Amino acid sequence: MQIVQTSSSSGVNAKGAGTARVVDDASAAINGNAGARSEAPAARSSTASLQRGLSNWDHQLQGEISNAQQTLDYLERSSSQLQALKSELAAKLAARQGREGQVEARVRQFSNTWRQRASASGGTLDAQLSYSSPQAAQQQFSIRGLTMASLQEGPQEVLAFSVGGANQALRSVNIEPGLSESEIVSRFDRALMPSGISVKRGENGELVFSTPEANWNNVRDSLSVRGSGVRYPTGQMSRVRTDAEPAAIAPEEWNTGDVEALRATLQQVVQALAQLQAARSSVSLALAQATGRVARAQPVQANVSMDTLAENFTEKASQPGYESLLAISSALVGISRERVVALLGLE
After folding, report:
1. Is 257 exposed, middle or buried (0-12, 13-18, 19+ CB in 10 A)?
2. What separation in angstroms does the CA of 68 have from each of 63, 71, 198, 278, 283?
3. Long-range contacts (CB closer than 8 Å, 24 or more residues apart) made by 14-22
4. Are 242 and 141 contacting, i.e. CB atoms less than 8 angstroms apart?
5. What is the pLDDT of residue 37?
6. What pLDDT, on the 0 to 100 scale, is given for residue 275?
7. Over the chain, what is the mean pLDDT?
8. 23 vs 3: CA distance, rounded Å
9. How far apart are CA 343 and CA 47, in angstroms?
10. Pseudo-torsion of CA 181, 183, 185, 191, nearest 10°?
């Protein structure tokens, strides 16, 4: 009998790992096939199930869990800072005094934290506190002069868009009379998607453009359009004006100069706290869902497959004949004296 093993330097079998190939010339001759290779059906089924479990381990799922935990940490730190600011504001308004400069210091602290939102959340929390993982956070914006009404009115026109400069490929949108809102949105979305821009219909029927936050500066500074003289100048690319959707929280606008300003800031802080709490609930739900998917992932089932594999080995090894020999020889593949000594040394 000859046992053929395919191994890798890591100690784990290479392609076809976990399956020992046994070639028994005598048995093959009896069956009329000198080159026949065989393995126990039960062991083969269990091994295949185990391999499927290991290969199905979702690394993206691990990333989602990490992103959610990181974002929750950021939201909790932000909420803690706002709570401290709220207390300082309330105390100063109640006593008409307080520790000099403490409110301003708290505002600066939260402003710095808010500016770190993108990096601190791994790029999954946008300026409206909407969480998206594994997709990147988006920046929504509008294009001045490009309204649904203006697109549904007037004659046909082909609009050619460019992002990133004159050397970039143009994306053309054919506008013609009689198009519905959904058709207009669909044409813009298809045309601009290769440039990293998606388009949807807003709550009030407006065109809403969005791009990953990491791509926003490039889009804002280089988005150009060329028309045929109906809605945009003829024959030349012109930079368009874009308006970013305002952030949910704007600490740079908080004023502490007088009593009225302190009251207005306190009201904005209370609103911001409510928004942060809503975001925390949303991210917590996403984390719970991802954790639930882990519980249902294949690696858990792989443990069951290992138990089944052990039961099959015990059963086959206890029976006389070729199946017993196959089970024992397969189990011994890759076992060396050094490994046995190392295992015994763990006791």
Report:
1. exposed
2. 9, 5, 24, 14, 6
3. 17/51, 18/47, 18/50, 18/51, 19/44, 19/47, 19/330, 20/329, 20/330, 20/333, 22/326, 22/329, 22/330
4. yes
5. 44
6. 97
7. 78
8. 6
9. 23
10. -160
- Give me the residue label for tokens 């506008």: 175
Q: In whole angstroms, give the CA distance from residue 108 to residue 119.
A: 18
Sequence-distant contacts of 193-199: CB under 8 A, at least 24 apart: 194/169, 195/161, 195/163, 195/164, 195/168, 195/171, 195/219, 196/163, 197/163, 198/138
Helices in 116-247 by DSSP H: which ranges? 117-120, 148-152, 181-192, 213-222
Q: Which residues pair with 23 in a beta bridge?
A: 2, 37
pLDDT given for residue 264 in this prediction: 96
Look at residues 259, 279, 229 and name the one whose alpha carbon lies nearest to residue 98: 259
Quote the DSSP letter at residue 16.
Answer: T
| pLDDT reading at 307 higher than 50 | yes
Q: What is the DSSP letter of 122?
A: T
Rounded CA separation 18/169 (Å): 50
Q: What residue type is 164 in one-letter code?
A: G
Q: Angle, to 10 degrees, between the axis of helix 41-55 and the axis of helix 298-317?
A: 160
- Cα-based angle 265, 271, 275 (whole degrees, multiple of 5): 140
Contact status, residue 252 vs residue 111, Cβ threshold 8 Å: yes
**Which residues 6+ apart lie within 8 Å of 157 measured at CB?**
175, 227, 228, 229, 230, 231
What pLDDT is recorded for position 109?
Answer: 96
Q: How many residues does the chain have?
A: 347
E-assigned strand segments in the chain: 2-4, 21-23, 37-38, 138-143, 157-162, 171-175, 198-201, 207-212, 224-226, 238-239, 242-244
